[in-house]
Design brief:
heterodimer, A: alpha+beta, DNA Polymerase III, Chain A, domain 2, 3 domains, 8-stranded antiparallel sheet, 26 strands, elongated, B: alpha/beta, Rossmann fold, Zinc Finger, Delta Prime, domain 3, 5-stranded parallel sheet, 16 helices, 5 strands, 6% strand
Chain lengths: 378, 385
């Protein structure tokens, strides 16, 4: 293998791929990245077996071939190189790099030791609007559970329905659900449970991409989806999917919350953040008391102290007292894409839902967050 | 990785089950320590992943076979006991245990043929069982299925009082994700949770034959005489035989040292001087009781040999080199085989104490006193001539 590449292209390619290189691994080859020549450039691949990234950078290929090389070391070397073309060639399992007067040799491993990337057929997949996908990921993946006890909740549910694409994530205490309209689906309805680490890479690597190709491979005669692939303009991200059936989240979303408050997002965020200072480190519990057009926020933590605040809002329902984990409340408020938030309640022991309150004439946003209440002790 | 030694009929049945698609999704390989249970588990992994199997055996040449044998196949996950990292805070324990597992796997890659004996007690801790569970919930990376080898599965319960690790695995065995296989190995199935035993299909392996062990050692480059001696002591276990081989300086191997130490306990147990037990006990540390378990295993073999001599079967000794001493002891003390066999229960009691982490000095002192009481005070014991 022999090729010449600009230092900048090499650096960009390595920066994209290196995020998938694990720091500690049982498989030594995973510390390496795979370099493969193409007609007009070089494919670089890295994987931690959960998420794989493959990018193509322009290069002048003189001799075809492939080899794996230590990813972090190559990245460190590239960072320090002068701004000259970089000539890379291989001799047996060793890579030789020359840039200006600098010369390096790095020991690699044969390409066939590198794990095969998933056999995803992008031609049989579908196109997804990049902006829509980014928005879904941004507004839902924060709610994924990090607890090991229910692995199924460690992923984001991505549903593709006819004319609709939806993501849902929850940890059992709060939930985020967002949907965007799409064109008619050719492949019918399908869904995946995607690890958030992969979605982070999609966010990072497809930042300004208009159209992203999505496809999956399946085992068991198509019955089980193993991997999901994302592709656009020489960048590919693959992820292993999480096994299992996602809980029926619709069941927990209340349909009869009849006490509706509309509140300025920033004012509520500030007030909740102030109360959170004095809230218990364990429960983060704060108390919300709703009266006509007024919200009282209270916090009382034995051994620490108490706090009170109030703000105006639009509310005409019966008075209500309800407890929340301030951290969860702040989290969902942070992702609300509107100035005003519509919060619906039923009773102190029932889940509250938060939705963006969109001004008339603006496009509606199908976004809902749910926060479970905390029991108030007195 | 060396080829599998022995276990031909087990391999033939497994290959047949593979062809007939009847290989169980959770297999428990049972048999004495060091006879090649984990190596057979790797062989089964090859059997399942090999892309050019011809007849019964996997090819060992294809990309998948090579990666299995180098422990580098992305869908093969090997969980094995590790020594608990010291000085690690609880929040970093999971990461430290995973690193310890990586290091042990790297050791296996470098030195696949090794003694089964370990100086420090190791276990599969809860954090490792949780890591296993996390991996099992994702789809296979490459192959059609994921394989999990859990070596020495009895060590999933590091202490009788904390079965969390075993329970964490239990949930997975109860509802295994599709396309996931578990191969557990154990040399002490009695220490496994009943619920794990009931959810796995047992495969019992017999010890290897003496010629198989001897030939393997000689193939490794061992001196034939040393190989024969080590094989004779190994009870059909390559892992044990390797521990009996003298080191490069000609000093006894780690297992031979343990065997000799166990012999000292037996001698003290046959002595009429109560002080012998105490002076012997002072030579032990005050911590690390679980490390006594292998020593007690050897003591049991010594007692078995003593009983063999007492029963007139002195030609069937494991420790042939001490035959003369044992014959003399039986003669002088007039030991009856029934009395000698009672001493096994004494050793078992000490083993329980060791697993319960009692001070090793107290265990040894008590053990010797009880051996003396059992062997020398029985009405069946004769008076020394």
């Amino acid at each position: 293998m022999q090729f010449t590449v600009t230092r900048q292209n090499l650096h960009q390619g390595l920066a994209a791929v290196s995020a998938s290189i694990p720091t500690k691994t049982t498989l030594p080859v995973l510390s390496n990245i795979l370099l493969e020549t193409a007609d007009d450039g070089i494919w670089m691949s890295g994987t931690d077996l959960d998420v794989s990234i493959r990018v193509k950078v322009p290069a002048e290929v003189k001799e075809t071939g492939s080899l794996t090389v230590p990813g972090k070391k190559l990245q460190e070397i590239t960072r320090e190189l002068p701004d000259h073309p970089v000539e890379i060639s291989t001799r047996a399992d060793q890579i030789e790099l020359a840039c200006g007067h600098a010369r390096f040799k790095l020991n690699g491993l044969p390409a066939d030791e590198f794990p095969s990337l998933p056999a995803v057929q992008f031609e049989a997949g579908m196109g997804v609007a990049g902006g829509d996908l980014q928005s879904l990921i941004h507004h839902t993946s924060f709610a994924v559970s990090t607890e090991e006890s229910r692995p199924i909740l460690n992923g984001v549910l991505w549903e593709l329905r006819d004319g609709l694409m939806r993501m849902v994530a929850t940890n059992g205490h709060r939930l985020a659900r967002m949907a965007v309209p799409t064109g008619p689906s050719e492949g019918g309805s399908t869904s995946f449970i995607v690890p958030p680490a992969a979605l982070q890479q999609v966010q990072r690597l497809f930042k300004d991409v208009e159209q992203i190709q999505v496809a999956w491979d399946a085992g068991d005669g198509g019955a089980r989806k193993n991997h999901l692939g994302f592709r656009s303009d020489g960048v590919e991200v693959y992820t292993r999917l999480i096994e299992g059936t996602y809980p029926n989240y619709e069941q927990v979303i209340p349909k009869d919350n009849d006490k509706v408050a509309v509140v300025d997002k920033r004012s509520l965020e500030s007030a909740v953040r102030r109360m959170a200072v004095v809230a218990s480190d364990q429960t983060h519990r704060i108390r919300l008391t709703l009266e006509e057009n007024r919200l009282h926020l209270n916090v009382l933590t034995p051994d620490l102290g108490e706090g009170h605040d109030e703000l105006e809002l639009s509310y005409n329902g019966e008075p209500l007292e309800i407890g929340f984990n301030a951290t969860y409340l702040l989290e969902v408020l942070r992702y609300m894409p509107s100035q005003e938030v519509r919060i619906s309640f039923k009773a102190p022991e029932r889940a509250a839902t938060l939705e963006p309150s969109v001004a008339e004439g603006d496009d509606p946003v199908d976004y809902l967050c749910l926060v479970m209440p905390l029991r108030l002790l007195d | 990785m060396h080829p599998v030694v022995g276990h031909r009929s087990a391999r033939a049945s497994l290959a047949r089950a593979r062809d007939e698609m009847t290989l169980p999704s959770a297999l428990l390989i049972l048999g004495p320590r060091g006879i090649g249970k984990q190596r057979l588990a790797l062989w089964i992994s090859q059997l399942l992943l090999c892309t050019s199997r011809d007849g019964g055996e996997p090819c060992s040449q294809c990309r998948n076979c090579r990666r299995v044998l180098r422990l580098e196949h992305p869908d093969l996950h090997w969980f094995l006991p590790v020594v608990r990292p010291k000085g690690v805070s609880a929040d970093k324990l999971a990461q430290a245990l995973e690193e310890a597992r990586h290091e042990r796997l790297a050791e296996f890659r470098d030195t696949p043929v090794r003694s089964s004996h370990s100086e420090e007690p190791a276990a599969i801790y809860l954090a490792a069982a949780q890591e296993l569970r996390r991996r099992a919930r994702t789809r296979p990376a490459e192959a059609g299925e994921q394989l999990f080898i859990v070596a020495d599965a009895e060590s999933l319960v590091p202490q009788e009082s904390s079965p969390e690790a075993a329970n964490a695995l239990l949930k997975l065995l109860e509802e295994p994700p599709p396309d996931t296989r578990f191969i557990l190995t154990s040399s002490e199935p009695g220490r496994l949770l009943d619920t794990i035993r009931s959810r796995t299909v047992p495969l019992h392996l017999s010890p290897l034959t003496l010629p198989e062990v001897t030939a393997f050692l000689i193939e490794l480059g061992t001196d034939p005489d040393a190989a024969k001696k080590a094989a004779a002591l190994s009870a059909g276990s390559i892992g044990m035989a390797l521990g009996f081989l003298p080191d490069d300086g000609g000093e006894p191997g780690p297992l031979d040292r343990l065997r000799r130490r166990a012999f000292e306990i037996l001698r003290a147990g046959l002595s009429r001087n109560p002080g012998d037990g105490y002076s012997l006990a002072l030579g032990f540390k005050v911590t690390g009781a679980r490390g006594l378990v292998p020593l007690l295993d050897f003591l049991e073999i010594w007692i078995r040999d003593l009983a063999a001599v007492a029963a007139g079967a002195g030609d069937l000794l494991v420790n042939e080199d001490a035959g003369e001493y044992l014959r003399k002891a039986v003669e002088e003390l007039g030991l009856h085989p029934a009395v000698v066999s009672e001493a096994v229960a004494v050793v078992e009691r000490s083993r329980r104490e060791a697993r319960g982490n009692v001070n090793p000095q107290l265990i040894v002192a008590g053990l010797v006193a009880r051996l003396q009481q059992t062997l020398l005070s029985s009405p069946l014991a004769g008076s020394p001539s």
